[in-house]
């Protein structure tokens, strides 16, 4: 795309998205021919403990599976808003589980991590019923959802409650995640983590060890919400020092929000997020 047409398209998209709900627009423009969806499966007793599954079309047996957690500062978010993520990964032959989890003020840290562990345990137990191979399991998230993914991959406490360990993951993927954010500055986040008494063990960067799964960390250079140098860069360095395989990518056309939106078919030109995720899974997932 030429720079002139790129500028015109960007301006047109910005005007269009400003007049509408951006996520609704992305989902409305998302093709439906690449997946089949099973909705509102309970993985726990709370109404928020539900998930959707996206399966590739045509169906694939023993496919890799990604459990995805969305962002929203642990205050907001809904799995229905992330159909474009399900489509993106399903179009690459991956089964996708998109899970809701309890939010503030219903709960505070660490309840949403316990929910995430339950969603992962459900996937391990039932994924094969939907064409997934539980031995080819990844956890992924954006923003606060990337925090959830990081904690499940790095801090064994949460999966241990479900009789599992982080070794079940072939790898984990974080998009624009907050991994080292004490003291908390965001007023929406402060009550979630009991500020000013936020526990140090709530930070993913404090749980890095040589046992961590291979990691893919992606961020935007222009991120005004989650500092990419401190969070993505700092965690990546800590992982490398521990000897953990880690890949990092920083993109310049995206910001905090559009980094995940770049997974959607209409916005894939912004950054090769989907290509990087797919390549990471293919490289770290040799079929036994």
Automatic annotation (TrEMBL):
The entry's keywords: Hydrolase
In terms of Pfam families, this protein maps to: BD-FAE
Q: Which organism is it from?
A: Pseudomonas poae
Q: Where is the BD-FAE-like domain?
A: 51-230
Gene3D superfamilies the record matches: alpha/beta hydrolase (3.40.50.1820)
Fetch the SUPFAM superfamilies from UniProt. Answer: alpha/beta-Hydrolases (SSF53474)
**Can you name this protein?**
Acetyl esterase/lipase
